[in-house]
Structure formats: structure tokens, C-alpha cells
Amino acid sequence: MARSSLFHHFLLPLPLLLALFSPSHAQAYHNISLGSSLTPLGENSLWLSPSGEFAFGFHPIETNTSFFLLAIWFVKTANKTVVWYANGDQPVQDGATVELTTNGALSLKDDDGQEVWNPGTSNATYAAMLDTGNFVLVSADASVSWQSFDNPSDTILPSQVLDLGTNIRSRMMDTDYSSGRFRLSVQSNGNLVFYPVAVPSGLQYDSYWSSNTGGNGTKLVFDKLGTIYLALNNSSRFNFTSAGIASVGDFYHRATLDSYGVFRQYVYPKNGTQNGTWNEGWNLVAFQPPDICQAMTTGTGSGVCGFNSYCKYVGNQNLVDCECPPGYSFLDPNRKYKGCQANFPAQSCNADEKALYNFSLLINVDWPLSDYEHFSPIDEDQCRGECLSDCFCAVAIYYQNNGDCWKKKLPLSNGKMGDYVQRRAFIKYAKGNNSQPPPPIPVMVKKDRGPRIWVGSLLLGSSAIVNLVLITAILFLRFCSYNKVRRKLQPGSNMAALSLRSFTYSELEAATDGFNEELGSGAFSRVYKGYLDDEPGTCVAVKKLDNLLPDMDKEFMNEVGSIGRTHHKNLVRLYGFCNEGTERLLVYEFMKNGSLTEFLFGSVRPHWHLRVQIALGIARGLTYLHEECSSQIIHCDIKPQNILLDDNLVARISDFGLAKLLRTDQTRTNTGIRGTRGYVAPEWFKSMGITAKVDVYSFGVMLLEIVCCRKNVEQEVGNEEALILTYWVNDCYRDGMLELVVEGDDEGALDMKRVERFVKVALWCIQEEPSMRPTMQKVTQMLDGATSIPEPPDPSSYISSIQ
User: Fold this and answer.
1) Residues in domain Protein kinase (predicted)?
2) Burial label, 273 (beta-carbon count in 10 A; 0-12, 13-18, 19+)
């Protein structure tokens, strides 16, 4: 997952208080004097911020307007979105009051005059509702004695900081503000962690997401640029989102821990549909974890959804849905988190009732922690039979690759559906039960790889002597093969410490069904889709390297070791390798959204804010390879085909660490260089040393492609001057006509400051002289807006000569 100076939240209140005490600003801040009060339905029910964008006061609960929260909300959004509340567990009715008493205490009382809430401080001289969305109590010594920003509910806002030891907790439902089932904790050890919690006790279960910054984090910051990050001790930061997703001046921002445990950042255009293609309403721009259903498996509690239900992540809508299995229904359809119950009588243990029950099939569904008996290997029919004859068994889960069968009993917990599950769930139900619904449509069925063929049995039985000779020969050959592989892996190999698996060629041949499904090919490799033989049947991409330089055993293992030591969210992860005879294969995680090529150059132009995040992600990944690895890795072939997109369209760099293994004739040029025409740096054509600046050049070319959504060389453009993208964009910039590069892109046209910034960075990257190009760390800082960008020199004199 760039480095820049930290934005420091105002914790010492002097600048604010000087403004509050200044005669010219006293009225602007709408100071709330002692003795002021509000009532839910009275003439005074709220206190506004100076801009009128935030209000503090009584907010009716959407599902029952007879009850009210003491809350802060956005005034000008369509649904008056609540961002803070004091009494979610104890709403009040008409007749309640909130008063800033004459002794400086803020007190919420119900209609019987009983105090419901107070902030635990007194002696305030006044209060103020600020334009940041922060409500403050100010003491006589010009200090803030209490503020809502230090006591968040489920939402944070720009300029808000959460110090170590601060928590936010989700609400139970969007319209139920009582304490919910999830907690975000900025822990005292500096780690940012998400937890499920028990309701109503608040007991904390096992975490489901962590920043892994224990001992290093200092505070969670939502800065004025709309960036959310965890500030670290070494003046760096762990980014949750990037700056400039949408201007704080033109958009409202918020980040909320929702009722399903997902921390989501939203923006809302202040001028409605005038802001390009943004929806008129809250637009989701970032969230963690990427798939809450997959992320959460807790040993205690029900998981994301209630007991006896399963969680389904709808990726194209970024939504979470909870479903009951066939034959079950929700205890409360309006509160799905309460779980599901069977619509049929339980199977009796005192009689043989197998004939009265049957199964419905769900594809790619499992309840991972509800099993009580495991069988292996058995076939699918045997698995169903084992469950059918067991009165305790409610569900049988079958994994066909290994013949594993798990019996599950009620209540089922941590239910999830997704193509990563790779299981078949057989749900037991009573025959003839009217409430048994039809089976749902399967999500994805992995292709059957066919029956296993056992050869040895055909050779047995002819005679005892033949059998003995055959077995002896097989054992001898396997012993020799084992020792050969072991000798090959021993010198300098420390793959176990890197958590890399050493595959045999036959294992990968089986995993890919005989290298049957080709995903793509390049000058030196072909890539195949496969499935590992682990329990979830992990989907992988197997890269088969061809025509490597001879005698490359040691170099191959060294490069695999270098790749295996990398770990960054913008790099494709290496699972393992094969180094057997002349075969060299690499096993990577599978990226189902393909490459940046298809994303950028398809028939539909991708959203501008997505392209921005992709460009920043690639820059961060290259910064890691160049400057943060134990030994520098130069990619040498940065291009859209080598940028893959994961399930959440996060950019992942692939094919890094392979440059030293290639023959000099394995390129798409005939000059002996490594790289792809159109992306190669000038020094490849000269007798110059190759440095990380070759990747900077290639990134600059690709950055312009991301901005313009077109290839560097486009034969079918109407304007001949625009044939070569780098040359044309440079001309547009020099002529003050930069709007042409985003012509037809309404989102980009509304963000011309960023467009200009990206173009200037790209022009610096494609300078002919390597020493004039910035490092990737500097590139990342300039893209993030963390540092100024000098005027780039004109590189056009050389651009046209190398295309």
C-alpha cells in the first residue's frame, strides 16, 4: 500500500480560540453562551455551524420520529447524514432538553428530567459548532475542555485525529444507532485493528483486519486533503486512502465503520450533478477490508452475518448481503444480523428418518468453524450419506479435489459465499416441507479436472517376480529423483524461510490440468490458470518461462529468493516456484480483473478517480522495488500488460525480478535491449549503464496513457500530430491546451489541477538524460501533491526519434 509530511491535527486549541475571542469573528463562530438550551420540537432544536453545513441538536430517528438523538449531522445532504451521536443506546422523546448550564456543564435530560448523557466535564465558558463538524466546549483559560472529535461515534471527518487508545464503534443498523457489532481501535501499541464485538456486552472477539503497525503507529489522521492515514514514528505513514480523491472544497467527506464492519470513505458533491459523473449523493471511494465476508472468520460469535446464515459480497456494488440457506428463514427480516432458523422439524435421533430428508446444493458456500467430524477421502455421495444418517448433521461440506467431507451442526457460524471458498454445501431439509425454497443460482463452479488415473494396478497380479522387480525399480527411480531435487535446492536456498513452496513439475501440470487454460503469453513465457491442492483450492497463475539463458540454476534461485522477499500491496505475490531439469516455473496469486491494458483501452473509459488510484499504486510499488527492498529490483519492462488489477482494482506490478534471466534476443525490439518498444528509456540505445531510472521513464509513458486512456502509439487517431502520445501531450502542455488530453472525460476535466500535475510529473519522467529524471519516491510525492513540481524541460527533441 508514498511518504509526505504529516498533517497535524489541532490538539492545542489556541488558533481556534484566538479566532473565537476576536471581535471580528465572535459572531461568525456562533458561540453558544451559558444557559442556552435545545428541545426536540421547540423553536430552538439545533445549533448551526457558521457555514450552515453542520448542526448540533436533536435529530429524529428515521424509523420512529417520536424518538431523537443528540447528534451532529450534515445539514445540506439529502438525508441529513448523522456523523456523531451521544445517546444511540437511549434515544429520548419530545420533552427532552440539552442545556449548557450556567456552571458550564452540557447535560442531556429526558422528558422526565432524568439525565441521559453528559460529556463528563464542566466549567465551560461557552460552546461552538465548528465548520469542521466538531462541537467544542471551551474553558475560561482558552482551552478546549471537551470536543466531539475526541469522542467519535462511528464516523470521522476531515481534520479529525484519533489518538492512541481511541475507538469508534459501528451502529447496529443504518437506522438503529445503538452500539453495534464492530469496533475500530487505534490501539495503544500503535496498531490499527478492526474487531467484531459481542452485543450487548461489548466483549471483543478475534480481529479481522490490522494495519500491522504495532510499535510504530502514533495516530489516525483524516487530513484536510481528504486523506486518511496512520501516522508512524519515523515520519512516514500507512495510507488508507490517497490525497485528492475529491476536493474538500467541492465535496463533503466522511469515513464510517458501517454495520457490517467495513470502514468506508465517502464523498458527496456539494453542487450535485455539476461535479462530472459523480452520483448526487454519497459516493464510495475507499474501504477496508476489501471483502468483509472473506476477511472475517472468528472463533466466537456469528461472523459478519447472523448464525445459520451466510455472507455474500456483491463486488460490483461494494455491498454486503446476508442470506439464509434453503429451508431456513430470517428470525427478523428487518434485522438480518439475528440469523436464520430452520422451517422444518429437526431430524429425530430416536428413529431412522433418513427417508424423510434430502439436500439442497449451494456452490462455493461454507461455515468454516462449525464442523464436528471430518472424512477423507470419500466421494460426494458418501459425504451426503454420512450426513443423512446423522441426526446431528445439518450441513455437509464437500471439497472435491481431495475428497474431503465435513459434517456441520447448528448453529452455523461465519457463513460465506465466494469463488475463493471452493466448496459444495449440502443443506439438509425435510421433504415435503412447504417452506423449502428452490436452490439458488450457483456463483461459480470450478472446472472438473477429470478422474485420476492409476496406472500401477494394471501391472500387478501377473506374477510375484514381475511385481517385485517393478516395485524395486520405481523405488530406486524415486530415490534418485528425490536426491537430485534435494541437491539442486540446497545450495544457498532458504525458500522455507520465505514461505515459498517448491513445486514439482508434475504438481503444476496437475494444477493447470495439463497447462490447459492459457491466460496470456509474452516474449519469454506463457501463463496458465491453475488451482493449488491446498484446502481452499487456491486459484493461481502459473508462469512457464521459456528460452532462459543456459546454466541459470543459481541465478534462477537467487532471483526467486529476491522476489520471495518482497511484500507490498502493489506487487503480485509469489506463492512458489519449480526448478526441475530444464523447467522453470513461477506460481503467482491469480488476478481475476486482468491487466491494465484491458482496463484502460476497452470500450468504456474507466472513472478518473480509479485511474488516479491505479497510477499512485504503481508509483508506490516501484518505489518499494527501487528503494525499500533489501536489494534493489529494477523491473526493466514497465508497461500496462505487466500491471494487473486485483478484485478491488488495486494495481499490482507483475514480472518484477526477472530481467537478469532473459536472453538479450527475447524482446520486441531487435536492438538487444530489455523492454517493450514505446516504453524503453533512451539509455538502452546507448552504451550507458542501466539504473532504476529506466523504470522511471517507462512509468512516465504509462502515466500519460492512464491520464488519456489511449496507447502511446495510436495509428487510428484523426489528428496525425497526436499519433505519438508523449509528443502530443508535451505539445498540448507547452501550448496551454492541456484540456485536450482529457477531452470527453468529464471527471478529468473537473480535476484539471491534478491532470496538470500528472502531466508535469510524466514529462519529468521521460527526460532523455537519466540524471534529470526524479526517483520513484520523488515521483510518488509529486503525484500525491506532497511536494511542488518545477517546470519540466521540453523532452520532445528526443521523443520523436525513438518511437
Assistant:
1) 513-799
2) exposed
Residue 117's region, left for phi above 0, alpha for psi from -120 to 50, else beta, is beta
Q: Which of 542, 649, 637, 526 is nearest to 598 (CA)?
A: 649
DSSP-derived secondary structure letter, 204: B
Cell of 755: 491532470
Annotated binding residues = 544
Higher confidence at residue 417 or residue 243? 417
Interior CA angle at 5 toward 700 and 250, to 5°?
A: 75
pTM of the model: 0.55
Q: Which CATH superfamily is domain 494-589 in?
A: Phosphorylase Kinase; domain 1 (3.30.200.20)
Domain limits of the chain?
Answer: 2-151, 154-193+207-289, 310-430, 494-589, 596-802
Per the annotation, the verdict on 637 as an active-site residue is yes
- CA end-to-end span of the chain, whole Å? 33
Q: Per the structure block, which three cell numbers stand in for 136?
A: 467544542
Bridge-partner residues for 373, per DSSP?
A: 407
Do 712 and 572 touch, CB atoms closer than 8 A?
A: no
Marked catalytic residue, from 223, 637, 655, 751 = 637
Inform me whether the pLDDT recorded for 572 exceeds 70: yes
Domain 154-193+207-289: CATH class, spelled out? mainly beta
Q: Classify 508 as helix, strand or coil.
A: helix
pLDDT, position 276:
60
**Which CATH architecture fits 596-802?**
Orthogonal Bundle (1.10)
Q: Give the type of residue at 121.
A: T
For 648-689, write each residue's pLDDT tens digit.
888 999 988 776 554 344 333 333 444 566 788 888 777 677
The CATH architecture annotation of domain 2-151 reads Orthogonal Prism (2.90)
Q: Provide the annotated binding site for ATP.
A: 544
Q: Cis (ω within 30 of 0) for the bond into 377?
A: yes
Check: CB of residue 414 under 8 Å from CB of residue 296.
yes
Within 10 A of 665 (CB to CB), how many other CB atoms are there?
9
Highest-confidence range of 250-264, 581-595, 596-610, by mean pLDDT?
250-264
Q: With CA atoms as reference, report the closest residue to 696 among 641, 764, 644.
A: 764
Would 2-151 and 154-193+207-289 be classified into the same CATH topology?
yes
What is the structure's pLDDT at 139?
A: 94
Please state, in angstroms and rounded to a whole number, the distance separating the CA atoms of residues 153 and 71: 10
Between 646 and 459, the higher pLDDT residue: 646
- From CA 184, how far away is CA 168, in angstroms rounded? 5
Residue positions counted in the chain: 803
CA angle, 422 then 426 then 428, to 5°:
160
HEC readout, 409-438: CCCCCCEEECCCCCCEEEEEEECCCCCCCC
Q: What angle do CA 297, 298, 300 make, to 5 degrees?
A: 150
* Strand-strand pairing, 155-156 and 32-33: unpaired
CB 701 within 8 A of CB 641: no
Cβ-count burial 186-200 (b if 16+ within 10 Å, e if not): bbeebbbbbbbbeee
Nearest in space to 172 (alpha carbons), one of 296, 89, 255, 254: 89
Q: Which residues of 708-728 are buried (b: 16+ CB within 10 A; e: fewer)?
A: bbbbbebeeeeeeebbbbbbb
CATH 3.40.50.300 fits 310-430, yes or no: no
SS3 string of 373-415? EEECCCCHHHHHHHHHCCCCCCEEEEECCCCEEEEECCCCCCE
CB 682 within 8 A of CB 691: no
Q: How far apart, in whole angstroms, are the C-alpha atoms of residue 251 and residue 246?
A: 6
Query: What number of helices (H) and strands (E) belong to the chain?
Result: 15, 44
C-alpha cell at 642: 505487466
Q: Could you tell me the CA-to-CA distances from 691 to 632, 673, 771 in Å, in that order? A: 10, 13, 10
Instruction: Please state the separation of Cα 298 from the chain's center in Å.
Output: 20
318 neighbors 445 (Cβ within 8 angstroms): no
